[in-house]
Amino acid sequence: MREEELPYKGIEGIPIIKEPGSAAKVNRGSWRLVRPVHNRDKCTKCKICYTYCPDAAINWTPDGPEINLNSCKGCMICVEECPTDAMTEEKEAT
Amino acid sequence: MKQTLVTGNEAAAWGARLVRPNYIPTFPITPQTECIETLARWVSDGELPGTYFDRIESEHSVMSAAVGAAAVGARVFTATSSQGLLLMHEVLYIAAGMRLPIVMATISRGLSAPVTLWSDHNDFLDQRDSGWLMFHAENNQEVLDMMLQAYRIAEDPRVLLPAMVNMDGYVLSFTDEPITIPSTEMVEEFLPKYIPKHTITKDRPVTVGPPVLDEYTIFRAQNHVAARNALEVMEEVMDDFHRIFGRRYHLVDEFMLDDAELVLVTQGSMSTTAKAAIMEMREGEGIKVGLLRLRVIRPWPAKAIAAALKNVKAVAVIDRNLAPGRGGIMLPEIVETLYNLDKRPLVSSFVVGLGGNPQTEHKVKEITRKLIDDLETGRPRVEWNDLDRNYMEGL
Q: A15 CB near a chain B CB, below 8 Å?
């Protein structure tokens, strides 16, 4: 396309997402290679995984952590930090 | 409307005061200038009701705060200089990409190392690919006038881009010049209230500048088209400015070009000295020399420049800046603009005035004489006009 043919789209040409919270509808964990798996028996509910998760992918429930695999990128920081080995690493099926 | 004596810094501050910005984020420490000091004084004296003046820890954060405020629809002004402008660099692209009409006064000063307190244009020209509209003033009146024009152009729905108004440090920023400060009524007639249409509000919680995949090129192209649109908008705005304020501006400043065979291409405050030298050379020696001053750097007014230079014999591009290993920054831009003309003038390059090295009438005459030599020999040159062999050998 020649430069002079480029249309001007006004405010439609400005990078804006108009729908609030639309990221929740997208699977942001699709490129994860490994996933954390939680073992309730070993968990002491110390909340370390919950505070350390850099992407807020761990929700806190009365029963302990709940991993949101739609958001988890598989960084394994929770596995590294868990003092009781309640979090373990598992390969994603390819 | 009143006549008064102000520095370039104060002229920029007056420009900001007249447009009534909602928000002025500032980094208050060096290399900041009196421009912000003046505004701070007015705000604390209660002369700028409705303006929130903010002190922030670095220029990077200042521009980030400016982006945030503009993204919720505020009219924003800020100012910086030299190293501070370089620290803002990353966020300048974000402001342009989000199409936020922020206006900033920049006060050109040579970059470290070594440290200089004086002016050259490297800090300003380093931002030339950031997507901002870039204006360069010649004198203090033009600083104020360009500020008003910059807001109107930046906020135009056909443009929606941030704009930078540059002046030379020390030479303009610290020098008193007589200027006319327009009345608030005139400014209100010229510059309508800013009604943002694409920003975040309480009822419209949008995401501005999100990650994209395939659409990236589309948004970049829109940034480009918006900047190109600005050329047309500028001409309209300058006409309207003339109607209301009586001062006439064009995309490029042409001086004695009607019958000129030789043309000096300049930027900023040295143009005034060059114009005086040109008048003397024309009267005293009958040399047909003229001047073209670049006042709009981005978007590049290629048509206006080509039209002004199409019938001349030789052009001296005078760069008060340096791309080491390349030469003057504006030289390739001018050469590209002239390359496809039917009859191309000879183009010589002059690198001058780095770190504030004063550009006297004498030096301008020297450049003109060297250009005449080049025309006679048919060989263009790249000349460091402030350095001569005796001086270098004596070091």
A: yes
- Residues B92 and B220 grouped into a single domain: yes
The pLDDT-based confidence of A94 (bands split at 50, 70, 90) is low
Measured between CB atoms, does A62 come within 8 Å of chain B?
no
Cβ-contact B78, B26 below 8 angstroms: yes
The pLDDT tens digits of the residues spanning B271-329 come to 999 999 999 999 999 999 999 999 999 999 999 999 999 999 999 999 999 999 999 99
- In contact, B47 and B215? CB cutoff 8 Å: no
Instruction: List the CATH number of the domain containing A67.
Output: 3.30.70.20
Residues B214 and B99 in one domain: yes
What CATH number should be reported for the domain holding residue B301?
A: 3.40.50.920
Decide: helix, strand or coil at residue A58. strand
Closest residue in A to B207 (Cα–Cα):
A17
Q: Mind listing the pLDDT tens digit for each residue in B166-219? A: 999 999 999 999 999 999 999 999 999 999 988 898 888 888 999 888 899 999
Calpha distance B279→A30 (Å, rounded): 70
Name the residue facing A13 among B206, B207, B219 (closest C-beta). Answer: B219
Residue B206's closest chain A neighbor by CA?
Answer: A18
* Tokens 């789209």 belong to residue: A9
Number of domains present in the structure of chain A: 1
pTM for the full predicted model = 0.92
3-state secondary structure of B147: helix
Chain A interface test: which of B208, B225, B233 (most A C-beta within 10 Å): B225
Domain end (from B187, B217, B245): B245
Q: Which domain holds residue B332?
A: 252-393
Quote the number of domains for chain B. Answer: 2
**Domain limit, last residue, from B199, B220, B245:** B245
Give how far Cα B123 sits from Cα of B88, B118, B134, B283, Å.
11, 12, 12, 37
Q: Is residue A13 part of a domain?
A: no
| Phi, psi for residue A30 in degrees, rounded to 5 | -65, -25
Local structure of residue B394 (DSSP, 8 states): T
- Claim to verify: residue B229 and residue B357 sit in the same structural domain: no
Residue B60 corresponds to which tokens in the numbers above?
């990077």
